[in-house]
Specification:
This protein is an alpha/beta fold. It is built from ten helices and 13 strands. It has a six-stranded mixed beta sheet with strand order 1-10-9-2-3-5, sandwiched between helices. The protein has a three-stranded antiparallel beta sheet with strand order 11-12-13. A two-stranded antiparallel sheet has the order 4-6. Helix 7 crosses helix 9.
């Protein structure tokens, strides 16, 4: 039918798609130290191979269960605390029941709870992107974590009758809903767990992979902004391709400050963004300030072309072209 019916009745085969994706991986401590925006934390990964089966595209449920179990073991995560599974979900009459059987084996080994974990597949939206299918699933999970919502898995209004979802830990996500953090009772104590998702990617020929990703919840210490005052000033830097454009940059910054309440601005954040998130061009301005009012006053003085501004420096950085001339053997 040309559409992928993951976990739906009548799934009639593999539907090809095309895609490409990329993510930046970093040790968690380094990302925190660098002030990066963290989309999720990888808790565990595992890969294995299904070995010999009845055919090249026939999956091995035991191997799929083993790779998922290995990922959970590495992550130290209790399957009962997982609230979403981004399934391989090719939408085939054979593959989908086998996948649910492998997942159920792992989940039911630790809990008898039913239908507490949502499950879906991006393949119902975009088809099977082959080598990009795994990154597509990871991207979907990270976006769901970012927005705190679970999106519907399509073409599954009528579920595959060969899968007994009612007696499994899984419920197919068929509508847009809030991704609630699970409340789990352990040893008489109920606590809220972060959003945790498992992502499966099973390749034809028997290659199996599973990754477990947890939402990033910064600690109170990480959320605390550094103290900025006259004794602990920050460095504000601006740059442009010409002196006129540099003054224009300053004027625009002043307009931005005047159009909002001072409480909306963090001087530490402004300093960080201007230092890290901008390209350093030829004409540059740098100044030390301890308050937002001081920053506005000094920038206004620069626009007015005053020269008696404390802790403000600006000028032109010569390009390296002049230095390279000394090493040129010929015009080229």
């Amino acid at each position: 039918k040309g559409r992928c019916e993951s976990f739906g009745r009548g799934g009639d085969g593999y539907v090809p798609g095309e895609g490409v994706g990329a993510i930046v991986l970093k040790p968690k401590w380094k990302a925190i130290e660098d002030g990066d925006h963290i989309y999720g934390v990888i808790k565990g990964t595992a890969i294995n191979h299904g070995g010999k089966t009845n055919g090249y595209s026939v999956p091995n449920p035991r191997a799929q269960a083993d790779v998922i179990d290995a990922a959970f073991t590495m992550a130290g995560v209790d399957p009962r605390t997982v609230s979403y599974i981004e399934a391989h979900g090719t939408g085939t009459s054979l593959g989908d029941p086998v996948e649910i059987a492998g997942l159920s084996k792992v989940f039911q080994g630790t809990t008898g709870s039913k239908q507490y974990c949502a499950i879906g597949s991006a393949k119902s939206n975009i088809g099977h992107c082959e080598s990009a299918a795994g990154i597509a699933g990871v991207t979907k999970v990270l976006l769901q974590m970012r927005h705190g919502e679970l999106v519907p898995s399509l073409h599954a209004q009528t579920l595959n009758p060969n899968i007994d979802f009612e007696n499994s830990p899984f419920i197919v996500q068929r509508e847009l809903s809030e991704w609630k953090r699970p409340l789990v009772t352990r040893d008489g104590e109920t606590r809220e767990y972060p959003r945790i998702a498992g992502i499966s990617s099973f390749g034809a020929g028997g290659s199996n992979a599973h990754v477990i990703i947890e939402e990033y919840r910064p600690s109170e210490l990480e959320c605390r902004s550094p103290v900025v005052d006259e004794h602990n000033p920050v460095i504000i830097v601006l740059s442009a391709k010409s002196e006129a454009q540099l003054r224009q940059q300053v004027s625009r910054l002043l307009v931005a400050f005047s159009s909002a309440e001072p409480s909306e601005f963090s001087l530490a954040d402004i300093a960080y963004t201007l230092q890290v998130g901008r390209e350093a061009l030829e004409w540059r301005l740098g100044l030390l300030v301890g308050t937002l009012l001081e920053l506005q006053e000094k920038l206004q003085a620069y626009v007015e072309r005053r020269t008696d501004i404390a802790d403000l420096h600006y000028g032109q950085v010569k390009g390296e072209q002049d230095n390279l001339v000394a090493f040129a053997a010929d015009e080229a």
